[in-house]
Design goal:
CATH class of the largest domain: Alpha Beta
Structural class: alpha/beta
CATH architecture of the largest domain: 3-Layer(aba) Sandwich
Number of helices: 12
CATH superfamily of the largest domain: NAD(P)-binding Rossmann-like Domain
Radius of gyration: 24 Å
Distance between the termini: 56 Å
Shape: elongated
Number of strands: 8
Strand order of the largest sheet: 3-2-1-4-5-6-7-8
Low-confidence stretches: none
Strand content: 5-15%
Bound molecules: ligand FVH
Length: about 290
């Protein structure tokens, strides 16, 4: 081990895919002693030149220090990789994407092996890791003590946001934000399909699109307020009845442009159903609870 890397906490990192490699490089650059393991050993070798110690097995990597971080493909690969590792007395921080139930089950699995557990949901892409102003961060949930003890180390690659004691919370908020992103991406895809052959250069349209989405995004605050108060029909600027009438224009325009409305139709259908059920004077907030039926 590099003798200069002794004053900062050690990190055992399992998984050197695109994200794991970015994490490893950031901790190494910050002067942390890092022991890495990857199923395909060749992916670990370049990190030796940057100061990483390469473990031959996942169990050896886990044995190298108290803080054990996993960043593997999926939850099943975490169980496989750590099957033979002694986790007694370890703090396992799992940054692998999974669903809330998997995170809770992984916490119970870690506790049964004598480890404390913290689940993480990474809200960043690999190029955002270690870049302070990138906007990237990681949701953490589970043991608040583990986060408190390792926060300084965990904050090196990206910001830390604690989501609660339920180990499944980080996964839940991660998935909620990714789901919202997918809805936005569906809208962006549909919008570009509409204007694909139109006069305006697409890069100019992209400016309009980005500005519009940025202006509209704060509507999420109003949604939260209405859901918390249970009042959906006061201060309504754009009622659903009007919106559903306008939606017919959206669908006709898609037809005129030869664009399949498949990406927006389910949402428009849900709006029409809500109006048919007597909620035309509200905005769309009530549809949140419609989905939960
Ligand atoms: N990359 C991204 O943009 C996203 C951003 C948000 C968070 N995700 C999640 O991070 C986890 C790792 O993602 P990744 O980008 O590093 O993924 P890959 O480059 O595909 O690397 C996968 C690593 O997992 C290893 N692995 C797969 N199966 C097993 C197994 N059964 N046992 C042990 N290791 C396994 C794989 O090893 P190898 O193929 O090199 O041998 C890689 O190290 C992920 O949960 C994302 O959803 C990234």
């Amino acid at each position: 081990m590099d003798t200069n890397r002794t004053s900062k906490p050690h990190v055992s990192l399992l998984g050197l895919g695109a994200m794991g490699t970015a994490l490893a490089k950031t901790w190494l650059a910050a002067g942390h002693p890092v022991t890495v393991w990857n199923r395909t050993a060749a992916r670990a070798e370049p990190l030796a030149a940057e100061g990483a110690r390469i473990a031959a097995t996942a169990a050896e990597a886990a044995a190298a220090g108290r803080l054990v971080v996993t960043c593997l493909l999926d939850d099943a690969s975490v169980g496989e990789a750590l099957a033979a590792a002694d986790l007694a007395g370890k703090d396992l921080v799992d940054l692998t994407t999974g669903d809330p139930e998997q995170a809770r089950a992984r916490e119970a699995w870690a506790h049964a092996r004598g480890a404390r557990f913290l689940s993480g949901g990474i809200m960043a892409t690999p190029p955002m890791i270690g870049v302070p102003d990138s906007g990237g961060y990681v949701f953490y949930s589970g043991s608040e003590e583990v986060l408190a003890e390792h926060r300084e180390t965990l904050a090196v690659p990206a910001g830390t946001t604690y989501a609660g004691t339920d180990a499944g919370a980080a996964a839940l908020y991660d998935v909620a934000l990714l789901s919202a992103m997918n809805g936005m991406s569906a809208g962006i895809t549909h919008a570009f399909a509409l204007v694909r052959e139109a006069e305006m250069p697409l890069k100019d349209f992209a400016v309009l699109l980005t500005d519009w989405l940025t202006a509209i995004a704060p509507a999420g605050h109003g949604t939260a307020e209405q859901l918390e108060s249970g009042v959906h029909d006061t201060n309504v600027a754009s009622n659903l009845a009007m919106q559903v009438t306008a939606n017919a224009t959206l669908l006709r325009t898609a037809g005129q442009q030869g664009v399949d409305p498949v990406l927006i139709a389910p949402y428009l259908d849900l709006m029409a159903r809500h109006v048919a059920e007597g909620h035309g004077d509200e905005d769309g907030t009530g549809m949140v609870d419609m989905l939960r039926r």
